[in-house]
Amino acid sequence: xxEHVLAGKSIVLGVTGGIAVYKAAxxxxxxxxxxxxxxxxxxxxxxxxxxxxxxxxxxGNPVFTDMFKQDVYDINHISLTxxxxxxxxxxxTANVIGKIASGIADDLLTTTVMAMEQPVLICPxxxxxxxxxxxxxxxxxxxxxxxxxxxxxxxxxxxxxxxGEGRLADLSAIMEGxxxxxxxxxxxxxxxxxxxGPTREAIDPVRFISNHSTGKMGYAIAQVASRRGxxxxxxxxPTYLPAPVGVKLIYVSTAGEMRDAVLSWKDWSxxxxxxxxxxxxRPSTQAKEKIKKxxxxxxxxxxxxxxxxxxxxxxxxxxxxxxxAMETEALIDQAKKKLKEKNxxxxxxxxxxxxxxxxxxxxxxxxxxxxxxxxxxxPLMTKEEVAYHILDRxxxxxxxxxxxxxxxx
Length: 409
Ligand code: CTP
Description:
Blueprint: E1 10-15, H1 21-33, E2 37-42, H2 44-49, H3 52-59, H4 70-73, E3 86-92, H5 94-102, H6 108-115, E4 120-124, H7 128-132, H8 134-145, E5 149-150, E6 154-157, E7 163-167, H9 171-181, E8 191-196, E9 201-204, E10 207-209, H10 216-227, E11 231-236, E12 248-251, H11 255-266, E13 271-274, E14 281-283, E15 302-304, H12 308-314, E16 320-327, H13 331-341, E17 346-351, E18 363-364, E19 366-370, E20 375-377, E21 381-382, H14 383-408
Helix pairs in contact: 1-3, 5-8, 10-14
Cytidine-5'-triphosphate is lined by residues 255, 274, 276, 278, 280, 305, 307-309, 323-326, 338.
């Protein structure tokens, strides 16, 4: 599973006529790169914007445009719906949304949608006034009620020189919508609070103490938890990463700010995963003005920051609390000790000495330790795959709790 969620999947991409058709070409490239096989069906209007040849070359498959040219590709009007994992419509015009909502099937694309048993994901793109139109909104509402999924359009400048809501969602949001549609929603109903990134402790107005954390591990956990159906709040120290799709992001800077944000979301959460590299110390005083150089030696006195993880885990109730331990020696013993002392359900132990593990890389190598002391040593894998493993274990702890509660009843 993991980030290979698209590998080997068969996707039908419906393309309707709008200026955003060229973005659908990019989408085909991304899907093929991720290992999916893509068959494209275009409306006649879509072919006026981009030639079917573009999609044929990018997908490596024939492109379907006409219901009555069956002899050419040996298809009948519903054969595109067979052995398919998902149908995506991008861009989807107001017109095609209206047709689907009203049960009209007057071309190959709409016929395919009507016969589709697998999920259909619709990515609208249109002028903002059209998108705001009550009929269009009513159609979307109706389709959502019927189980159709949507990636809402983004806000920005439109081809017609107006600005507003209506432009096709970003490629990253569409890709995430597709991954989500193909992923079992086994964390639905969970509310996951994740922390990520470093913290910064100011010395004076221009300098701070921080660490090498980039936030990649925590961001991957937040994204995958959301993809698996959880509601996710991500409390992040300063990073350069794009915001995960569908996640509420709260930026903080210092450990104190991170503590405040975590405590204010604690009661809301059912799961807390603390992947942040919180500074253990902060300067005891912060100079109001920039410190000028003078003496040969300068001392900065530091004082302890609150341990956020211990604080939330102390009174965790039924919450599942997961910590990280980054060590340079005696990894497993240190991690087990932290798990006990901090009252955690799981701890992910990171050996900084391992190649491919730790800060600023896309891979990680961790061991997951549970409260019974069991150690699961994972091989080197991408941070996204690590996120899947951690969340699998979280799911197990939740299931154990549910079984335990049932046993007591
Ligand atoms: N953590 C925290 N608040 C702090 C320090 C750490 O919430 N002030 C959390 C981290 O997010 C991580 C876990 O505690 O999940 C372990 O952090 P680590 O720095 O490895 O452990 P410490 O308990 O700080 O111990 P030490 O620095 O002595 O190894």
